[in-house]
Amino acid sequence: MTTRVGVVTFPGSLDDRDAQRAVRLAGAEPVALWHRDKDLHQVDAVVLPGGFSYGDYLRCGAISRFSPVMDTIIEQAKLGMPVLGICNGFQVLCESHLLPGALTRNDSLHFVCRDQKLRIENAETAWTRDYSAGQEIVVPLKNGEGRFVADGHVLDQLEAEGRIVARYLDVNPNGSYRDIAGITNAAGNVVGLMPHPEHAVEPLTGPSTEGLGFFTSVLKQLVNA
Amino acid sequence: MARVVVDVMLKPEILDPQGQAVQRALPRLGFAGIADVRQGKRFELELEGPVDDAALARIREAAETFLANTVIEDFTVRVEEEGK
């Protein structure tokens, strides 16, 4: 049976098609999920894509977090379903309190768009097991509010529990505390990532194909489960 | 109609780059002597019914769960007096 990976479209999502494409290239079946539909249509995992849901009104991800589909995703994530939030999706996961901390305005105040080098710090999450710990990859990054913040106690806890999934290398593009590009929950099934692995899955359009590992990782996780 | 105002501000320990940018622009415009600027949000809620304890409790709940992200923001709730 083909693994089904849902990709949610909120009003203002931009990268849902690219995320679907990455899922397909990884060998799974992408399933379009609609924000107003509580039903997850028997998917095995969910990607919350990048974009500007609800125009980033109120706070990035704050309104999407209360959409009907998120009620079901929050419930299933707590039961262990793999969920990957990319960029705006990461913001939605923080607003949902599935992940700690928050994403705030870049310290430079500029929208940053660049090919970004990252180091994979935790290769044991549902979304990173096809990488090795310490592996360096380059994927696109594009955000205006990508600065990860949390209080010192939370940051120490994330470090101690190995829950920092990826860190920025060479350049910290947005002022994120401790160069954090991505984190996971304690169970390792929910991952939030500010850069965009779904834009680095084909040589024609990406700076590398090193983003594909996030999508093949979850496939392996689900097949072995 | 009764009005309740919810003010939301970034917590003091959270960097406010927008406020900093405003603060840096002020002297250029000839507004001297302003040591710091923090930028926040103000919500004006018009109530259909009276402002009683129950209504204020619900508004505090809305502020806590939705209008503010208490990971990074503080909020205050106050009733705006009639006739002002």
TrEMBL record, chain B:
One of its GO terms (molecular function) is ATP binding. Pathway: Purine metabolism; IMP biosynthesis via de novo pathway; 5-amino-1-(5-phospho-D-ribosyl)imidazole from N(2)-formyl-N(1)-(5-phospho-D-ribosyl)glycinamide: step 1/2. GO terms for cellular component: cytoplasm. It catalyses: N(2)-formyl-N(1)-(5-phospho-beta-D-ribosyl)glycinamide + L-glutamine + ATP + H2O = 2-formamido-N(1)-(5-O-phospho-beta-D-ribosyl)acetamidine + L-glutamate + ADP + phosphate + H(+). Its EC number is 6.3.5.3. Keywords: ATP-binding, Cytoplasm, Ligase, Nucleotide-binding, Purine biosynthesis. NCBIfam families: phosphoribosylformylglycinamidine synthase subunit PurS, PRK05974.1. Belongs to the PurS family. GO terms for biological process: 'de novo' IMP biosynthetic process. It holds the Pfam family PurS. Part of the phosphoribosylformylglycinamidine synthase complex involved in the purines biosynthetic pathway. Catalyzes the ATP-dependent conversion of formylglycinamide ribonucleotide (FGAR) and glutamine to yield formylglycinamidine ribonucleotide (FGAM) and glutamate. The FGAM synthase complex is composed of three subunits. PurQ produces an ammonia molecule by converting glutamine to glutamate. PurL transfers the ammonia molecule to FGAR to form FGAM in an ATP-dependent manner. The gene is purS. This is Phosphoribosylformylglycinamidine synthase subunit PurS. It comes from Kitasatospora cheerisanensis KCTC 2395. It comes from the Bacteria. Part of the FGAM synthase complex composed of 1 PurL, 1 PurQ and 2 PurS subunits. It is found in: Cytoplasm.
